[in-house]
Amino acid sequence: MLMEQEQRHVYYDRDLDIEAYNLSGIVQKFPNHFHEYYVIGFVEGGRRHLWCKDREYDLSAGDLILFNPRDNHYCAPLNGELLDYRAVNIKPEVMERFAREITGQDSMPRFTCNVVYQSDITQSLGNLYKTIVERAPRLAREEALFFLLEQVLLEYAAPFNEAGISEPGPQIQTLCTYMEEHFSDNITLDDLLSMTSFGKSYLLRAFTKQVGVSPYRYLQTIRLDRAKQFLQDGVPPIDAAMMAGFSDQSHFTNFFKEFIGLTPKQYQRIFTGSSANEKCRSFENLSGCEETSAVTSAGTEHIPIGADVPKKSTKHVPIGADVPKESEENKHVHK
To answer: What pLDDT digit, counting tens, does each position of 229-272 carry?
Structure first.
């Protein structure tokens, strides 16, 4: 079964304050959504069709992917091919700190493109992933992150206020702010309508066009982000679901796994260590990094959290493999 080949590994590096993850053998479609953080990733195997901000891309091994916070995107496999993908998630405040060091500018950067075909930057990303997985000394991990961000920011980023980004109109922005502040409430379409001069049909169409996702998907994505923070803080999943505004635990678990690839409990253990606390504490003194894995095999899951990880395993190679130099024809964009 294809299901038996799926593996998902997530690592949280406390020193760098970033998440690194690997998806292997994935056939899942990922629905339209966005993140509150930057994503730098690359395709290691398989082909995908990506939709991002009204553009479409055909991705294959060696392609670099860059998402800004709130860049809406979704993807599906091409010809049923299995996806192998590695990426790091970087919080805005972490990115801002590194950007200031690299560019000398005290402003948030914004990626100016979402896909770079056949980019040699994937080697730097693979190297960072490798140092985190192999628990390299802190200096090696910091250096790998710095070199990666230096390449990306100098070649494919601009200060946020210079990136030519169109913001949602005032009434749509009001709705976004309201949902961010009242994410746990039972918000209805009439509630949103009362804050605008729109009709229902126009509100839905205008919001989706300007924001990139529908109002309900926007609200659910905000709830998901808040739930992740609750889980990181040690709130039990059942309470995190209620605090974030999800209607029931089952709905929360299904939605969380659809977008994150892990159950809420698996995700929480990256940060809390659960029953492996003693191992995690001794490990944090060494490298400040924790792991969780979800290996799908006939419906069972294996989660070696805080356990000793070999220096190299077949699950995590090849990392940093040679890839072709970036092509001059780097804009295979289909409108």
So the answer is: 999 899 999 999 999 999 888 889 988 888 887 889 988 988 87
pLDDT in tens, 9-25: 889 999 999 999 998 98
pLDDT at 50 over 60: yes
The pLDDT of residue 142: 93
pTM for the model? 0.70
> Cα(221)–Cα(215) distance, rounded to whole angstroms?
10
Using CA atoms, how far residue 30 sits from 33, 48, 79, 256, 291, in Å, is 8, 11, 16, 12, 23
The residue among 225 and 3 whose pLDDT is bigger is 225
**First-to-final CA distance of the chain:** 35
CA distances in angstroms from 193 to 187, 203, 211, 301, listed in the order given: 11, 7, 16, 44
Question: How high is the pLDDT of residue 87?
Answer: 96
Cis-peptide, bond into residue 324, ω within 30° of zero? no
Other CB atoms within a 10 A radius of the CB of residue 116 amount to 23
In this structure, the strands spanning 109-111 and 157-159 are antiparallel
Q: What is the 3-state secondary structure (H, E, C) of the chain?
A: CHHHHCEEEEEEECCCCEEEEEEEEECCCEEEECCCCEEEEEEEECCEEEEECCEEEEECCCCEEEECCCCCEEEEECCCCCEEEEEEEECHHHHHHHHHHHHCCCCCEEECCCEECCCCHHHHHHHHHHHHHCCCCHHHHHHHHHHHHHHHHHHHEEEHHHCCCCCCCHHHHHHHHHHHHCCCCCCCHHHHHCCCCCCHHHHHHHHHHHHCCCHHHHHHHHHHHHHHHHHHCCCCHHHHHHHHCCCCHHHHHHHHHHHHCCCHHHHHHHHHCHHHHHHHHHHHHHHCEEEEEEECECCECCCCCCCCCCCCCHHHCCCCCCCCCCCCCCCCCEC
